[in-house]
């Protein structure tokens, strides 16, 4: 499908499905954006999710979920009115429009709004073959092979769980500034968990990946088998992990997923809403040094086929590449429409929402640090005593005091410049505006994660990506048990 | 779209599933409305109204299962859903443990647990705005150091849940919920802190007064100002009721039938063993009148009950639904939790320990040096081993008193050892949430800081 066709087709799909017309949309948006309102939009969504789960050696569960709905939003100053329903009818849309409009203190007459079809600037994930259309048998066969491969790797692998999830989302957004834009957003994800047992010891390992990609992405270069091996090896290695150290240590983070550091330490704190409200530890600090000069951090929603990428954000703004930190200096915030307008700053294409049932907010897309000049070997060799963290679970941040955590699930001691024993998982804790100032080496091996990240904020989950080269941090608190 | 009652739609779907070859099936359908309003610095910031109606279908074709969900209630869509779900089931592998609960376990009558407050039908956005505004105003006025706010929020909503299965079970109930919360921000010497307080209840009139919510939020925020790191050490750790509840959630995860049969629990093989001191008893009780976690039947139509999970320190019961019970050669405990789009899973109802006799002050009194935890962040818990490491915020205890605030520290240990190491359970139990706890003291954990 060419891009032009896809936009027209998306619009047609929604108008036909719900018995609407373009002029009716104009009326609804025009009615919502009455005199005292600054902006109004309507967001339609039709989402199909299919998932298959393997456990105990068989694929015993298949799920299919079709959801649809629409939300009408009215923005007046810093106020937002929002109403949504999964029962999309003309009457419900008009009711939603009136409800949302109640936020504007005084109602006024409808404004004439005319919406023009707008092409997304990007075409980042048009797929020749939707993973939804792949034969069910092929999906089941892939999961079965994961089970066989993991158990064959080592007899201590006692159970394997794998889930394949395929999502196909159509959205249509009409805004009172006079645009209508549609997008087709595919998303694929595979997760593998292995349980290893040896005598009384038991451990697990988890790995996976995906993106806005075709099913073949999983089999290309036997990616799914590599992920399976990684999960199994993590479980096996952790069987004999020793207690993690406790206290402030030099930490080396491996490339890829450990970029969750950036997501927590700086990403959330640079979202426009928190900075407009002055509730972020980074508020009012544009132009200040917040990281070592080795650090340049960007958020880029335009990388082809990535889990965190979008052609347009959930307010219809084309996504972009925003430099957040340039050589250690704080340069930019991530914005949605309302916060960009109130702060007098440019749109960055970061207005995102979980679904039609949610109000957009500034959110990250793919957040990563640019590569530096050291080799990963040099970085590890430079550490006398420290921790090497290769993989993480999740993290969390208190954006107001700036304290963030992220939890290592695969880590090793570094002794005399060598990676030695595996240590048990531990949480690392630091202060967002301080932690990156202690980055003393940045590797030349920047990697994006495999495509599994989900970010939660104010009860809304959205898919995101992170990336990092190998980096050395001179001192961060490691929450182990060994004092 | 159809305005048919959910019951009729559920029966239509069961019939269609049978016609397409399902040997058994069940349907969960839910509809609800909710309202939330947000106020920040005295001004209305957000008004949101939601309306939802959707259903989930689970079919069995002999021992093979599939699940689907939709919000499209048109007759054609429902028939197509039944057909597709049966087709999907045929491609999954037969599982000897799959199936509906035995008829003996189903709820025979639907008890009125007083989960619904008709005030939910008449509560207005103006009322919510006034409540939120009052709570925030009290917080902002509590102290000149409270300089900002993330806002205050009021929400209300109701749900109606219908469950029907091919065994002939058809049941429904309504519930309502209200909440009020506020998040003030305090500043001192360039440092900024936020904290929160809330009240939630099934009855509108049972919500705490906005003044009380605002005052408590301000106190909690102010006491964090000037927080610092402490040196790495091993000390007694006291969890306030909010953070103590998180320890119960970890326990609930480990006694879930799914975690157990998957080998993903640190409590495998511990049934009947002592896992905590004699004074610890923990209940999961879905039958408490008016409580936030109560329901007359679970996600499979099984009657809810009161289960003693831990009794006098001994692990007495796992939490099970039909499937995980069969995997473990046991019987459901009425803990099936079901969202429309997914298979049943195990969930808690109202989970809480029996209260102890010491007040929180008495518990603190015996501690020369230790940590009082008021917030935990991050996900550093390994469910398989129980290894525990999380970011913490709280107050440093010196000679039995809360001396100064601490942050940027972690607490670490192992959940099994932590439960065994519980030295005191407070008398301050309040069922503020579906998982609740009083103050809990653990004898020794590693605190990592400087």
Q: Let me know the largest β-sheet of chain A.
A: 7 strands, mixed
Mean pLDDT across every amino acid position of chain A? 94
Shape of chain A: globular
Helix content of chain A: 10-25%
Largest interface, chains and sizes: A-B, 81 and 80 residues
Helix count from the secondary structure assignment of chain A: 11
Question: Which strand-content bin applies to the residues of chain A?
Answer: 35-45%
DSSP strand count of chain B? 19
Overall pLDDT level of chain B: 96
Our Rg estimate of chain A from Cα atoms comes to 24 Å
Note the run of SSEs of chain B as H and E: HEEEHHHEEEEHEHHEEEHEEEHEEEHEE
- Contiguous low-pLDDT stretches of chain B (5 residues minimum) are none
Rg of chain B, rounded, reads 24 Å
Indicate the CATH architecture of the largest domain in chain B: 2-Layer Sandwich
Structural notes for this entry:
The complex is a heterodimer of chains A (about 475) and B (about 450). Chain A has about 475 residues and is an alpha+beta fold. Chain A is built from eleven helices and 24 strands. In chain A, the strands form five sheets. In chain A, strands 1, 2, 3, 4, 5, 6 and 7 form a seven-stranded mixed β-sheet that branches. Chain A has a six-stranded mixed β-sheet with strand order 11-10-9-14-23-20, with helices on one face. In chain A, strands 8-15-16-18-24 form a five-stranded mixed β-barrel. Chain B has about 450 residues and is of the alpha+beta class. Chain B has three domains: about 5-220, PmbA/TldD superfamily (PmbA/TldD fold, 2-Layer Sandwich), CATH 3.30.2290; about 235-245 and about 355-450, no CATH class; about 245-260 and about 265-355, no CATH class. Helix content of chain B is about 25%, strand content about 35%. In chain B, strands 1, 2, 3, 4, 5, 6 and 7 form a seven-stranded antiparallel β-sheet that branches. A five-stranded mixed beta barrel of chain B has the order 8-15-16-17-19. Chain B has a four-stranded antiparallel β-sheet with strand order 11-10-9-14, with helices on one face. The longest helix of chain B is centred in the N-terminal third of the chain and has 17 residues, at about 75-90. The N and C termini of chain B lie far apart (about 60 Å). Chains A and B meet through strand 1, strand 2, strand 3, helix 3 and helix 4 of A and strand 2, strand 3, helix 2, strand 6 and strand 16 of B.
């Amino acid at each position: 499908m060419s891009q032009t066709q896809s936009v027209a087709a998306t619009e047609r799909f929604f108008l036909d499905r719900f018995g609407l017309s373009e002029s009716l949309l104009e009326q609804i948006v025009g009615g919502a954006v009455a005199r005292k309102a600054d902006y109004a939009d309507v967001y339609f969504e039709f989402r199909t999710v299919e998932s298959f789960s393997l456990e105990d050696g068989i694929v015993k569960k298949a799920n299919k979920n079709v959801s649809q709905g629409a939300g009408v939003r009215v923005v007046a100053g810093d106020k937002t009115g929002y109403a949504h329903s999964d029962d999309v009818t003309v009457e419900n849309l008009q009711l939603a429009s009136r409800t949302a409009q109640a936020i504007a203190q005084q109602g006024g007459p409808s404004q004439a709004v005319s919406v023009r079809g707008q092409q997304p600037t990007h075409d980042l994930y048009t797929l020749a073959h939707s993973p939804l259309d792949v034969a069910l048998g092929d999906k089941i066969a892939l999961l079965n092979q994961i089970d066989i491969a993991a158990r064959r790797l080592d007899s201590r692998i006692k159970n394997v769980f794998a889930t394949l999830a395929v999502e196909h989302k159509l959205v249509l957004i009409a805004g009172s500034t006079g645009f209508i834009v549609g997008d087709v957003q595919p998303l694929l994800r595979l997760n593998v968990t292995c349980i290893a047992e040896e005598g009384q010891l038991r451990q697990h390992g988890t790995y996976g990946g995906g993106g806005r990609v075709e099913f073949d992405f999983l089999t290309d270069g036997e990616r799914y088998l590599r992920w399976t091996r990684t999960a199994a090896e993590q479980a096996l290695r952790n069987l004999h992990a020793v207690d993690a150290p406790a206290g402030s240590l030099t930490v080396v983070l491996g490339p890829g997923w450990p970029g969750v550091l950036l997501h927590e330490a700086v990403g959330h704190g640079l979202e426009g809403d928190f900075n407009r409200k002055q509730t972020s530890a980074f508020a009012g600090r544009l132009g200040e040094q917040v990281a070592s000069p080795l650090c340049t951090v960007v958020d880029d929603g335009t990388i082809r086929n990535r889990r965190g990428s979008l052609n347009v954000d959930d307010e219809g703004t084309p996504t972009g590449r925003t430099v957040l930190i340039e050589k250690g200096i704080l340069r930019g915030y991530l914005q949605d429409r309302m916060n960009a307008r109130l702060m007098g700053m440019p749109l960055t294409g970061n207005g995102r929402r979980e679904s039609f049932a949610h109000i957009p907010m500034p959110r990250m897309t793919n957040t990563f640090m640019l590569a530096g000049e050291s080799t990963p070997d040099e970085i590890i060799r430079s550490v006398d005593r420290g921790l090497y963290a290769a993989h993480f679970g999740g993290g969390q941040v208190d954006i107001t005091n700036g304290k963030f955590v992220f939890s290592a699930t695969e880590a090793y001691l570094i002794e005399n410049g060598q990676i030695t024993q595996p240590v048990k998982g531990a949480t690392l804790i630091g202060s967002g505006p301080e932690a990156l100032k202690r980055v003393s080496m940045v590797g030349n091996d920047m990697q994006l994660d495999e495509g599994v990240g989900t970010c939660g904020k104010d009860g809304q989950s959205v898919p995101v990506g992170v990336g990092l080269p190998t980096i050395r941090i001179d001192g961060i608190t490691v929450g182990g048990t060994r004092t | 779209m159809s305005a048919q009652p959910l019951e009729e739609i559920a029966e239509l779907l069961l019939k269609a599933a049978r016609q397409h070859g399902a040997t058994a099936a069940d349907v969960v359908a839910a509809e609800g409305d909710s309202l939330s309003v947000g106020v920040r610095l005295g001004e209305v910031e957000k008004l949101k109204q939601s309306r939802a109606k959707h259903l989930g279908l689970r079919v069995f074709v002999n021992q093979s299962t599939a699940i689907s969900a939709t919000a499209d209630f048109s007759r054609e869509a429902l028939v197509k859903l039944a057909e597709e779900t049966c087709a999907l089931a045929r491609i999954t592998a037969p599982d000897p443990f799959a199936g509906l609960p035995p008829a003996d376990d189903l709820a025979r009558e639907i008890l009125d647990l007083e989960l619904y407050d008709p005030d939910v039908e008449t509560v207005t956005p103006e009322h919510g705005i006034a409540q939120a505004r009052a709570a925030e105003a009290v917080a902002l006025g509590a102290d000149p150091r409270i300089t900002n706010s993330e806002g205050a929020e009021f929400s209300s909503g109701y749900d109606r849940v219908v469950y029907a299965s091919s065994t002939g079970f058809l049941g429904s109930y309504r519930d309502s919920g209200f909440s009020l919360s506020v998040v003030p921000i305090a500043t001192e010497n360039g440092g900024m802190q936020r904290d929160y307080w809330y009240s939630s209840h099934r009855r509108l009139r049972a919500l705490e007064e906005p003044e009380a919510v605002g005052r408590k939020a301000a106190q909690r925020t102010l006491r964090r100002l000037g927080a610092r790191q402490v040196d790495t050490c091993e000390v007694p750790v006291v969890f306030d009721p909010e953070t103590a509840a998180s320890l119960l959630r970890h326990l609930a995860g480990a006694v879930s039938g799914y975690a157990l049969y998957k080998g993903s629990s640190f409590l495998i093989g511990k049934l009947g063993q002592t896992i905590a001191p004699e004074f610890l008893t923990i209940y999961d009780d879905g039958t408490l009148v008016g409580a936030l976690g109560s329901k007359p039947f679970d996600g499979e139509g099984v009657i809810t009950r009161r289960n003693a999970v831990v009794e006098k320190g001994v692990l007495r019961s796992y939490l099970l639904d039909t499937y995980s019970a069969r995997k473990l050669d046991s019987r459901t405990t009425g803990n099936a939790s079901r969202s429309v789009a997914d298979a049943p899973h195990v969930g808690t109802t109202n989970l809480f320990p029996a209260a102890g006799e010491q007040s929180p002050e008495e518990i603190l009194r015996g501690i020369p040096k230790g940590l009082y935890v008021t917030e935990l962040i991050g996900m550093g818990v390994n469910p398989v081993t129980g290894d525990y490491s999380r970011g913490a915020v709280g107050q440093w205890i010196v000679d039995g008193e809360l001396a100064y605030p601490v942050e940027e520290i972690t607490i670490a240990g192992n959940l099994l050892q932590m439960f065994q190491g519980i030295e005191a359970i407070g008398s301050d139990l309040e069922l503020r949430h579906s998982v609740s706890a009083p103050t809990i003291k653990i004898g020794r954990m590693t605190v990592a800081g400087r």
